[in-house]
Amino acid sequence: MINTETLQPAEPLVPRTHYLNANYGIKSWLLTKDHKRIALLYLASVTAFFFLGGVFALLIRLELLTPKGDLVQPETYNKLFTMHGIVMIFFFLIPAIPAVLGNFLLPMMLGAKDLAFPKINLLSWYIYNVGAIFTLYAIIAGGVDTGWTFYTPLSSVYSNGNVIAVALGIFINGFSSILTGLNFIVTIHTMRAPGLTWFRLPLFVWAHYATSLIQILGTPVLAVTIVLLALERLFGVGIFSPSLGGDPILFQHLFWFYSHPAVYIMILPSMGVISEIIATFSRKKIFGYKFVAFSSLAIAVYGFLVWGHHMFVSGQSVYAGMVFSFLSYFVAIPSAVKVFNWTATLYKGSISYATPMLYAFGFIGLFIIGGMTGLFLAALGLDVHLTDTYFVVAHFHYIMVGGAVMGYMGGMHYWWPKISGRMYPEGWAKLSALIVFLGFNLTFFPQFLAGYMGMPRRYHAYADQFQVLNVLSTAGASVLGVGYLMPMIYFIWSMRYGPIASANPWPGSGLEWQTASPPPTENFIDTPTVTWEAYEFEEGQNLNVPVAAK
Amino acid sequence: MSEKIVPKRVYFTIFGLLIGFTLLTVWVASRDWGAFNTIIALTIAVTKALLVALWFMHIKYSNRLTQLVVASGLFWLVIMVALTLFDYRTRSMGR
Fold first, then answer.
1. Smallest CA–CA separation between A194 and chain B, in Å?
2. How many whole angstroms separate alpha carbon A532 and alpha carbon A196?
3. pLDDT reading at A539 higher than 60
4. Could you tell me if B16 and B52 lie in one domain?
5. Number of structural domains in chain A
6. Residues of B in contact with A221 (CB under 8 A)
7. Mean pLDDT across A84-96
8. Residue B81: CA atoms inside 13 Å, Cβ hemisphere, count?
9. CB–CB contact B90 A221 (8 Å)
10. Is residue A1 part of a domain?
């Protein structure tokens, strides 16, 4: 039985000084060691890349409005989808939730003043930007046309694009990812508040722990693979190119050993966000907390055993294909555990349909479609038909955009009052969530149909029979673009004109809601002591705990 | 956690061993050991890596958690190599 008195938001509380006004000037931002400010620096960077990647997507969809290649040259089209993929994956999706929401929230959720290594945290942002500069240089200098996958020997021998500059950008950017993961793991192990045991941690923290493991264990392999590619391209060392005595499949093994788990770097933090939102807006403890927590770790570990399902038709041994197919089905289990447990959490919950919850519902529905179609692709026989078709494009966008970005948007709305100290306009936000959901499905569902009927990906022209589906998809992309622009506008608006947010406006149960909005630089005046379980909403066990920062 | 102070002679001994193994590598490479070429080279390389990790990187003196992290890295390497080699070893089967 939920005590409704505890659901009343606390009075607005604006501390005299907080992390946003503690000091001023560009230097105070560029040399900050405050995890919250670094999170905002990342927010600016990843948002810029999100819109840059969006421009590439827009041009792709415009070209595909008609069957003939009448907007851009085939070579230009190759560069557009390559740069769309590179920008979105390496410079938006991978860093987005960990580097923005993770950076901002993790120390607060742990009751800590900052991450374990604040200077390394700032360093990771600079490294990200150095990598970004190389990639932007490559784009301005003419782009790259290999696909974001850099398959050899196209990338290592034949491509005329700026492969080395982009590869160097991704190589450098990888270290940013590794340092963030390292910082999170050390912080979670060593800086938890008194009483905050492992099984009292918010599931957001568990998800970021699992993500960090992947970042640390997988990213170095990508770095090594890029170095090998560069050695072959620059010095003709035979590693991947058959003409030089190498094996192109070896590149795919190394590339996907990182890049498949990288999908979980994108989706796991999003799952952490969804757990927080579902619990808060159904006023219930997450059903099967430990299963959901361990399912994050299981996804992180299983995710490293399935990379060969990207290579069923590439020349990989059929026996390896069978093993990878079998293992790929296993990774569906922990993913399903999460979805079933979120659904069970909703059962008899006191559900409210605030904007973050709308995004969470969107996530669950779209992730189910993305996950289930992933099982289609993990089936050895069916994959032969679907490989390199738009079915694959639709599938991974349902995971990466329908899953990861929906979670990111939900999280941004959920914690925006904490980040900015202001509320966003709820009506507009609900409308944007609806537009994003509709626009997304209109964009990508037709691609399942086109792909299943045989439309190949990565071509600038296509057969006339696919035009209706492509027009729908392009129209959907326009709607989706509007849906993404709206939050950017009203978030900026709310920073000046939005109603003042209380410390705990929803109210939520985590430690981050027990400090002021926006929080003081040191997060908590006194280190909190945790005496309650995670997501304990009953009888006001923590919702009416006095706010620490005054 | 206080860092263990390791006597300098330990570092010099390890350094000497690494130089010794490097010379051994050169000597081994100048002879044909047949099927054992790779095995010998890898054994020397792994031994050198262990010396660096255990003493120079202080894994030997670290707590269990740090040792677990290092072991995880090696285990993940095993996963990558094993499943990749499984592909290579089974490509010609049934053809």
1. 19
2. 9
3. no
4. yes
5. 1
6. 80
7. 97
8. 6
9. no
10. no
User: Does the beta carbon of B68 lie under 8 angstroms from any beta carbon of chain A?
Assistant: no
B83 near A CB under 8 A: yes
Residue A463 pLDDT more than 80? Answer: yes
pLDDT 10s digits, A2-31: 333 444 444 555 557 999 999 999 999 999
Give the pLDDT confidence of A107-116 residue by residue, as tens digits: 999 999 999 9
Whether A10 is covered by a domain: the verdict is: no
Cβ of residue B1 closer than 8 Å to a chain A Cβ:
no
**Contacts with A239 (C-beta within 8 Å, 6 or more apart), sequence order:** A156, A228, A229, A231, A232, A246, A250, A251
CB contact under 8 A, B83 and A323: yes
User: Angle between the A467-497 and A406-420 helix axes, to the nearest 10 degrees?
Assistant: 10
Is A333 within a domain? yes
The reply to whether B68 and B23 lie within a common domain is no
Q: Per the domain annotation, does A53 fall within a domain?
A: yes
Q: What does the pLDDT look like over A259-309, one tens digit per residue? A: 999 999 999 999 999 999 999 999 999 999 999 999 999 999 999 999 999
The reply to whether residue A319 touches residue B72, judged by beta carbons under 8 angstroms, is no
A317·B83 Cβ contact <8 A? no
CB of A304 less than 8 A from some CB of B? yes
In this complex, is the C-beta atom of A250 within 8 Å of any C-beta atom belonging to chain B? yes
Residue A75 neighbours by CB distance under 10 Å: 14
Residue B18 structure tokens: 């690494």
pLDDT of residue B92: 85
A189 touches chain B (CB under 8 A): yes
Range of the domain at B5: 1-62
Could you tell me if B37 and B74 lie in one domain? no
Helical packing angle, A426-452 and A390-399, nearest 10°: 150
B31 lies in the same domain as B5: yes
Does B68 lie in the same domain as B47? Answer: no
Per-residue pLDDT tens over the stretch A396-449: 999 999 999 999 999 999 999 999 999 999 999 999 999 999 999 999 999 999
What pTM does this model have? Answer: 0.92
Check if the beta carbon of residue A490 is closer than 8 Å to that of residue A424.
yes
**Same domain for B58 and B83:** no
Contacts of B2 (CB under 8 A, 6+ apart): none
Q: What is the pLDDT of residue A547?
A: 40
- Whether residue B88 sits in one domain with residue B75: yes
Find the CB nearest A320 among B73, B80, B90.
B90
B33 touches chain A (CB under 8 A): no
What total number of domains does chain B contain? 2
By residue range, what is the domain housing residue A187? 26-540
Q: Report d(CA A276, CA A280) in Å as an integer.
A: 6
